[in-house]
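Appendix B: complex inputs.
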Amino acid sequence: SQKIEQNSEALNIQEGKTATLTCNYTNYSPAYLQWYRQDPGRGPVFLLLIRENEKEKRKERLKVTFDTTLKQSLFHITASQPADSATYLCALVASGTYKYIFGTGTRLKVLA
Amino acid sequence: GAGVSQSPSNKVTEKGKDVELRCDPISGHTALYWYRQSLGQGLEFLIYFQGNSAPDKSGLPSDRFSAERTGGSVSTLTIQRTQQEDSAVYLCASSLTQVGGRGAFFGQGTRLTVV
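Resulting structure:
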């Protein structure tokens, strides 16, 4: 069956360090993989998109990698700040479709 | 408006009553989505609109759930004869195109509590 897995345990890191979050999937052939941030009581906010033929994408302190052989995406936040504390969701969009399939998210807490 | 707007932000209803949830997407966005998020859970796909038509209703949990979109803009999600298991946050999102090559923009959600 199709599955998207994110580490359900919260990730605590010290301010200034790099946070790395993982998104693994099975039985999908995603054309796009996206990362969203969600704060408590709010809707998800789009951060970055990476296409199946791209290995890496950067935006300011954010970096996303996409390995279609490993069926995995890594999401990095460098020089993390307490304001980066939130839940981060990955979402897949399969080739030729429109449906965003979301993982359950990983809660990140950056400690001052 | 500048973003996706949902109303009401909170709704408490008695079991068995009908509720209507409204979504006003970003102007010009042809794709519109409804998701449901239960406490501590991921987003569960409900329905997708392209313009006014809904090519995919596969996520609607039962025939008590229906949705429509008029004028390629505002959408309403209706839940009839609400049950306690319907309690969740209902999120609406819109996107510029129907293919996922761009991000989806979410509203703040409607928190539905069925008592």
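The mean pLDDT of chain B is 92.
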